[in-house]
Amino acid sequence: MRLFMMAAVIIISAASLAPAATERAAMMRMLGDMEFLNLFAGQERVSTMCIGRSVLGQNIPLVIIRNPDVPVESTSRIFIICRQHGNEPASTEAMLQLIRYFFSNPKSSDVDLLRQVTFIIVPMMNPDGAMRHKRRNANNADLNRDWINQKQPETRAVTKAIKQWRPHLIIDSHELDEDNVQGDFIECLGRKSGVDPGIAAHTAEIRSLLISKLRTEGFIVRNCTVSDNRSPRLAHRYFPLTYGIPTLLIESRQSGRRFGSLDERARMHLVTAMTAARCLAGQSEIVKQEVADWWKHRTAAPLASRGGHNRTNTNNNGQPTSETKPSR
User: Fold this and answer.
1) 162 φ, ψ to 5°?
2) CA–CA separation, 90 and 101 (whole Å)
């Protein structure tokens, strides 16, 4: 066990030193090392499987984070799609942090979270595009326009995995183009999109909690709603309309100073994933109380200590009001 812990520390420390986006080869080595250590120590909290191959024949890994003592079927399952577009690395970095965290010895409250929630993560859906830092795959196809026709092996592989795991929530993680200064946003289908009203209401409730929690972490995130019934070729339209699975589109901004850094963008995706998991675990009221306590402390602070930057129009939950709808 001592050897296992030393090796785990080496994996975590070495990965955290990388200042730039993690290359696919380094990611696969890390996941392979974790698989070896799992076999060595008999630990099954984190496991990896291949769900398919890209156009160039590269494996598309799927990582499962779970409590091995609890049947997966009895948990709420959150499916996270990362890096559909190869030039949007933040979600991959966030999920590698999440994987490393749960692979090591996390605090008991987070281990308890896995009694209620199973994470199913595709950390790099488009390895060919990521290798070239290009949006499209090796067939020059935009994967997030291929969900209806599914002509590409990457979309077919992920759809098959989603049908197998039957998640209760899908998070489709993206980043805005480097010259796009609109700001972070979370989008889901509204009632006018044709989605089941119950799914629309449930997804909107989760989105509201995510935006409120992100505000307490320093992120001002816009609230966007799909209010049309256009063709569901994008993931966050396709899965709610085709399979009835609540799906959220997450977009982080790559431009700017502090919030344009890869570390901060990854942190946004990490907070989003963990908060969504807590909502699925029945902790929504706890999250609401954390947000309320944050606002109470912020309101009580002297005006001078708050400064005048990052101002925005907000509603009573501290959520930026926005009617823009820049679907990816």
Assistant:
1) -65, -40
2) 17
* Pairing mode of beta strands 169-175, 76-81: parallel
- Strands 247-252, 185-189: parallel, antiparallel or unpaired by DSSP? antiparallel
What residue segments make up the domains of the chain, in order of their start? 2-299
Closest by CA position to 83, among listed 144, 1, 162: 144
Per-residue pLDDT reduced to its tens digit, 23-43? 888 998 888 888 767 666 556
Q: What is the pTM of this model?
A: 0.86
pLDDT tens-place string over residues 78-127: 999 999 999 999 999 999 999 989 888 666 677 789 999 999 999 999 99
Sequential DSSP letters for 77-129: EEEEE--SSTT--HHHHHHHHHHHHHHS---HHHHHHTTTEEEEEES-S-HHH
Distance CA 191, CA 225 (A): 9
Q: Please name the residue that has the structure tokens 């690395």.
A: 89
Contact 129, 136 (CB under 8 A): yes
Select from 153, 168, 175, 146 the least CA-distant residue to 60. Answer: 153
Look at residues 162, 161, 169 and name the one whose alpha carbon lies nearest to residue 75.
169
Contacts of residue 218, Cβ cutoff 8 Å, sequence gap at least 6? none
Residue 49 has, within 13 A of its CA and on its CB side, a CA count of 9
HSE on the CB side for 250, CA within 13 Å?
34
Instruction: Tell me which amino acid residue 60 is.
Output: I
Nearest-angstrom CA–CA distance, 116 and 118 = 7
Please provide the CATH number assigned to the domain covering 2-299.
Answer: 3.40.630.10
